[in-house]
Design goal:
β17 and β18 form a beta hairpin. The protein has a domain of 40 residues. The radius of gyration is 21 Å and the shape is globular. The strands form three sheets. Strands 1, 2, 8, 9, 10, 11, 17 and 18 form an eight-stranded mixed β-sheet that branches. It has an eight-stranded mixed β-sheet with strand order 5-6-4-13-14-15-12-16, with helices on both faces. It has a two-stranded antiparallel sheet with strand order 3-7. The protein contains 13 helices and 18 strands. 32% of the residues lie in helices and 20% in strands. The protein is of the alpha/beta class. It binds flavin-adenine dinucleotide. Flavin-adenine dinucleotide binds next to α2, α8, β12 and β16. The site of flavin-adenine dinucleotide has 47 residues, from α2, α8, β12 and β16.
């Protein structure tokens, strides 16, 4: 189901590979013998997984590796990786810049456990790639989190102190403005911090590689199989257009689509777009910049910019939060390609890299980001029925590496394994909620626009207008954390 997958009525904003550099490249290089036809008729499994992105696939893989006796089936609406997992910025990093959020969520020891485990996810993914021979342009060269206006320096400075306080100064190191300028060639960036262990990756090659390994490990994958209803009254029953899957337990791994199947979580989420562009391969021009191939880059804006250079010498550059919130916390078509957001992104790219201003932009795309009030993933059990249905959602733009850990947690929960993962501080019902509709999207939208305008004015070297600054402040109050400047919101 790599192309031509029917667009199920459930979510009109379904991803397709067209326009997304990563998906185009991954799909073009794939063998035709790896098709996963839709579910037809009845099937059973010990564990059913809904959603074929990083979360669903890592859960399936951890389950099969730890419990080879459990049968696992995965249902994906279109093709594995066609959601956020195949269209993101390719930042794989931990939670060193989000330690304050971890500390707000759980005990100091619990926060340290999650910090360490997420940092270890980078090595864990790397080892997995080596063992299973997944080629996905994994380059473990660290990441620069640099201020694009003076006020943004507060974020890295506080994060550096926090990492020192908890005994992990190795995760983040200070970096001066001259160094950033020398390394990136960008005149708009100042100092900040360097995430010492982070990797740039081709996300679609990674997610399609996980799919391939999952198939080898015996996971049954049904693509083109959107789950239309989920019944958890007597066993778990999942209905698709042409079939039904009965399972002992289920894991909902739907990212920005979570509220389509679990509407009770809609108030614990907002869905916002992130847009990305890719230049043509820039050859010698990129080599002349000191921006070493693979070192990731982002700023500290509320609507964060993020970038990487691919091995082919393309700059991939994105910005989160430029576009309307999804009504009732679901994706909307504009989240996948908003011409206005993309043209503003091109302007930002030229401002960031004036020496590359004439580079041809060959690709531009968007994707929906699931944001939680705490800006950390929420992992819980659906309370709608007696049977066990678990979910994970709310990565808030930082899911590439954390999904490896979240997959472990979900695998422990779904297999009823009582370990430190199943009882870690991310597991539990949502404790913070966004306002109900229409306030959530209409009010949130007004605030979002104000906050974005404040960012844009600061980027242009002028002071935000009072109303815009107030919108950004109010945003921080009414939609807690959603637009707090930090680098971890890659999307
Ligand atoms: C543009 C963009 C840039 C980003 N940049 C970064 C970054 O650089 N670094 C980072 O760490 N994070 C980034 N993120 C976030 C990161 O991509 C996500 O957190 C992560 O991929 C989430 O994976 P997932 O498996 O939870 O969701 P998804 O990958 O979205 O998977 C959900 C899947 O569910 C499927 N689906 C939907 N409805 C149904 C249904 N009814 N039945 C069956 N299947 C269904 C979808 O087709 C999709 O494949 C970015 C996100 C976006 C959109």
């Amino acid at each position: 189901m790599l192309s031509g997958a029917p667009e199920p009525a459930l979510h009109p904003a379904l991803p397709r590979p067209g326009g997304v550099l990563w998906l185009e490249e991954a799909v073009a290089g794939e063998l035709p013998d790896v098709a996963c036809p839709p579910l037809a008729g009845s099937a059973t499994a010990d564990v059913a997984i809904v959603g074929g992105g990083f979360t669903g696939l890592w859960t399936a893989l951890h389950l099969r590796l730890a419990h080879p006796d459990l049968s696992v089936a995965l249902l994906e609406a279109t093709g594995c990786g066609f959601g956020a997992s195949g269209r993101n910025g390719g930042w794989a990093s931990g939670w060193q810049d989000e330690l304050d959020l971890l500390l707000a969520r759980t005990s100091p020891a619990g926060a340290r456990f999650l910090l360490d485990e997420c940092a270890a996810a980078i090595s864990g993914i790397e080892a997995f790639l080596g063992e299973w021979e997944i080629e996905c342009q994994w380059r473990r060269r660290g990441a620069l989190w640099a201020a694009s206006s003076p006020g943004q320096l507060r974020g890295p400075t506080a994060a550096l102190a926090r990492c020192r306080d908890v005994g992990r100064p190795d995760l983040l190191e200070p970096v001066g403005p001259d160094d950033v300028c020398r390394r990136t060639g960008s005149p708009v960036l100042g100092g900040g911090a360097r995430l010492t262990d982070a990797a740039a990756v081709h996300p679609a090659l990674l997610v399609r590689g996980l799919r391939r390994v999952a198939l080898r490990l015996g996971v049954r994958i049904y693509e083109g199989s959107p789950v239309l209803t989920l019944d958890q009254r007597r066993g778990v029953s999942l209905l698709t257009p042409a079939g039904r899957l009965e399972a002992g337990a289920a894991v909902v791994a739907l990212g920005a689509w979570t509220a389509t199947l679990l509407p009770e979580l809609a108030r614990a989420l907002v869905v916002v777009p992130s847009h990305v562009l890719a230049t043509e391969p820039l050859g010698k021009r990129i080599e002349q910049l000191a921006w070493s191939e693979g070192e990731l880059l982002c700023d500290g804006q509320a609507s964060v910019h993020y970038a990487q250079v691919t091995p082919a010498g393309r700059v991939v550059f994105g910005r989160g939060g430029d576009g309307p919130l999804g009504w009732r916390s679901r994706p909307r078509p504009a989240h996948f390609a908003d011409a206005d957001a993309l043209s503003r992104l091109v302007g930002d790219f030229r401002r960031w890299f004036p020496d590359l201003a004439d580079a041809a932009i060959t690709h531009g795309w968007g994707g929906p980001v699931d944001r939680s009030p705490s800006r950390l993933p929420m992992i819980g059990r659906s309370e709608r029925g007696p049977e066990t249905v678990y979910y994970a959602v709310g990565y808030s733009g930082n899911g590439v590496a954390p999904s490896f850990l979240v997959g472990k947690i979900l695998a422990s929960l779904a297999s009823a394994t009582r370990d430190t993962y199943a009882s870690c501080g991310l597991v539990g019902p949502p404790t913070r909620w966004f306002p109900p509709e229409p306030l959530r999207s209409v009010g949130g939208e007004l605030l979002r626009r104000g906050a974005l305008a404040a960012d844009d004015r600061e980027a242009a070297g002028t002071r935000p207008r009072r109303l815009e600054a107030a919108a950004r402040r109010t945003m921080a109050l009414t939609l807690p954390d959603v637009f707090r400047p930090r680098c971890a919101c890659r999307g």
